[in-house]
């Protein structure tokens, strides 16, 4: 089966229950942001700029558990910021699992190995030695770390830890192969760490997914190569979504300067071009989401946004109307459902109800639409059923060439701090303002609101990638 039976059955049961009850709007996935603190400062990340990143500003553990109970979403995606920084992350995961939720821990991967070592120390017995031997052989833990695991004390054994379970996925943020990914997260070595964390998780027995955002400058072939490589590591599933951006100023420029929208941002047309092969990818790789959403991305049909089905809760409350745009925060999920005028948002039959929605085709607005049967067409239910309950694609065969292609950055001396920085310092790039774009991370937190891992405001990333590509041509 493409996805574990228990998980698919749980989600299908939730939809059927609400259809029978004729509930007009209900939650499918809770995007829970217990904090916005992060160890990285990715280009264009809105979360670390829109919200306070002070560790004092966190959603208390009990509140996190209460909001999950309140909205009753069968799936919870714990995001942020970097959720592994949340001091009670282990207790949060344990509490949500106790509630029977399917969990996705959206992480940049940097702290994953530490959390998995904590787990190994908590459960260590000689029976674990073959796994430790494999982790040592593949250099995923050091001899010193293995000794710490073996000699775990009472405190380490009593610690609440993140255990492998079929109800939980690590969901690792990967936006491309090494060069691109490290460039976007603005730190060399992060891609390599993600890969090592994924390998370690698979050896121990965790489920692992990845989430990727496609930007205007994203090379489609690179995304396919990334899927092949991740599949060869036996990653269990992938979320992929087009980047989102809106900017009233750009609309103004279109009007005043007569430029075309595609000069500035990922339009619907461009998204459809980038995702032309999504249905083939869906057959070859374990892409999460419905085939109906894939048809939408490929430009084969229209869908209406159902952002209310993937609500976001964070330090300020229930965020409306969606994960990406903020027009207000509410104290309760039902209150948000009742008070927001949902008819103001989304694109219907190609017409944007809100100009900010015009080019949005993101996963968190439209994937639930595919599952919930908005814009239903005959055969959709069977399509979704046979996709989710169908045969899981086999892992792509691992080859050294695949790995060589993946590690195309700092591992071979072409990190963004060397090659890319040299490129953007070229006279032509300087003329184009690339240096300014690259230095933007030094600026104060003054950016417009956007998303976080995997679905943020893509303006800056597109600009940066475009300028580097341009400077390489010179
Ligand atoms: S169309 Fe996109 S930006 Fe608009 S409300 Fe839906 S998810 Fe949010
Ligand atoms: S995109 Fe994710 S990893 Fe990057 S700074 Fe934002 S929250 Fe952190």
Please characterize this protein's 3D structure.
- There is one protein chain.
- The chain is an alpha/beta fold.
- The protein folds into two domains: 5-389, TIM Barrel (Alpha-Beta Barrel), CATH 3.20.20; 417-473.
- It contains 23 helices and eleven strands.
- Helix 3 runs parallel beside helix 4 (89-98).
- Mean pLDDT is 86; it is low at 432-452.
- It binds iron/sulfur cluster (SF4) (2 copies).
- One iron/sulfur cluster binds at residues 305, 307, 321-322, 324-325, 345-346, 356-357, 360, 362, 365.
- One iron/sulfur cluster (SF4) is lined by residues 305, 307, 321-322, 324-325, 345-346, 356-357, 360, 362, 365.
| Portion in strands | 5-15%
**Termini distance?**
49 Å
Q: What is the CATH C-level name of the largest domain?
A: Alpha Beta
Query: Major β-sheet, in short?
Result: 9 strands, mixed
Low-confidence stretches: 432-452
Number of domain modules: 2
- At the fourth level of CATH, the homologous superfamily of the largest domain is Aldolase class I
Average predicted confidence as pLDDT: 86
Number of strands: 11
> Number of helix segments?
23
Known CATH architecture of the largest domain: Alpha-Beta Barrel
Under CATH, the topology of the largest domain is which? TIM Barrel
Oligomer classification: single chain
Describe the global form. globular
The helix-and-strand class reads: alpha/beta
In short:
The chain is of the alpha/beta class and 474 residues long.
Notable features of this structure?
about 475 residues; alpha/beta; 2 domains; globular; TIM Barrel; 23 helices; two-stranded antiparallel sheet
